[in-house]
Write a structure and sequence with these properties.
Length: 334
């Protein structure tokens, strides 16, 4: 089989990927002259269309596919709500695949790809080799909460600036002993922790290693029981659910939040506003993330060429009680 892709065939024939797909399938309005151009390009490049490639025909399914690592928790629920609202406006159905505890993920994803017009993939859910295979087949694809993969578009939230602002705010409280709860993956969380590490280093503060844990209240509780034994000044958490778990662990250990230890999260889920103490966090536009992904995918399905670009949505630092009150310094004597 040749290493040529459907993109190269389209470029050589001077037509769109959708036109190549229709010509290969023998369906849709493709003129004889155009079909011949595609045939010649296929022969010249020795292109062997995959099952995925020949299944792609514009508007064939009126369905989008979404691949998430998990569907539990408020984060994914909010993102999905935003996605489905836009998909409904566009008259498209949504097929959702969770990879959690699922065997044979690559084969399952490839099967899903033959039943939808385009695919949204969250973070690092799928290996890069599989993403490349899917993109090279001509499948319209949008990456969510990560940078674009070649042959795709992407949308994510801003991480570094807000993470730095949060770290600076905590340093202003006088905190010097930091702990980080939540894994150091290659996506959003990695960008946050990298910015935090840079900021702490700039202030001469020892940079801790993030402690791996599931992004759940239970995961945060378990991580908190370990981290809090060393009595840090503050525990910065990868998301709000982890932070809520750390607060529970602090209570269990007889520690007051924020009197004995400050705790911060990320996302600003509803529970963050109503927890006691209310959680200092960074607000992500979760529904808009989903909505933006739906619009981007619709543009690709309609024939727009992928540009490997990443759209970044703004985030916002939200200061609440869990990080404590700023010290009030008396005026200097004259």
């Amino acid at each position: 089989m040749s290493d040529s892709t459907i993109y190269e065939v389209a470029r050589l024939a001077g037509v769109s990927i959708a036109t190549v797909s229709r010509a290969l399938r023998g369906t849709g309005p493709v003129s004889a002259a155009t079909r011949e151009k595609v045939r010649q390009a296929v022969e010249q490049l020795r292109f062997t269309p995959s099952r995925l490639g020949v299944s792609l025909a514009e508007g064939r399914h009126a369905a989008d596919g979404i691949v998430f690592p998990d569907l539990s928790g408020p984060y994914f629920g909010e993102v999905l709500l935003g996605y489905e609202e836009v998909a409904a406006e566009l008259g498209r159905s949504v097929l959702i695949l969770s990879t959690r505890d699922r065997a044979g993920v690559p084969e399952t994803v490839k099967d899903l790809a033959t039943r939808v017009d385009g695919l949204v993939v969250f973070g690092q859910t799928l290996p890069d080799a599989l993403l490349t295979e899917l993109a090279d087949s001509g499948l319209p694809m949008v990456m969510l909460a990560r940078e674009a993969h070649p042959g795709t578009e992407a949308v994510r939230s801003e991480n570094a600036g807000s993470a730095e602002a949060l770290a600076v705010h905590l340093i202003a409280h006088g905190h010097r002993r930091f702990a980080l709860a939540g894994g150091h993956d290659e996506g959003d969380v990695s960008q946050r922790w990298t910015a935090v590490a840079r900021t702490l280093g700039d202030h001469g503060i020892t940079v801790p290693r993030p402690v791996e844990c599931p992004y759940t209240v239970e995961g945060g509780h378990e991580a908190g029981l370990t981290l809090l034994r060393d009595r840090p000044d503050v525990v910065m958490c990868a998301d709000d659910q982890v932070a809520l778990g750390v607060i529970l662990a602090a209570e269990e250990l007889g520690l007051n939040v924020p009197g004995d230890v400050a705790v911060t999260g990320w996302d600003d889920i509803m529970a963050a506003r109503h927890s006691r103490p209310a959680l200092t966090t960074v607000r992500q536009p979760l529904r808009e993330l989903g909505a933006a992904a739906a619009r981007l995918l619709d543009e690709l399905i309609a024939g727009a060429e992928p540009t490997d670009s990443t759209r970044v949505l703004a985030t916002e630092l939200v200061i609440r009680a869990s990080c404590g009150a700023h010290q009030v310094h008396p005026p200097e004597e004259q």
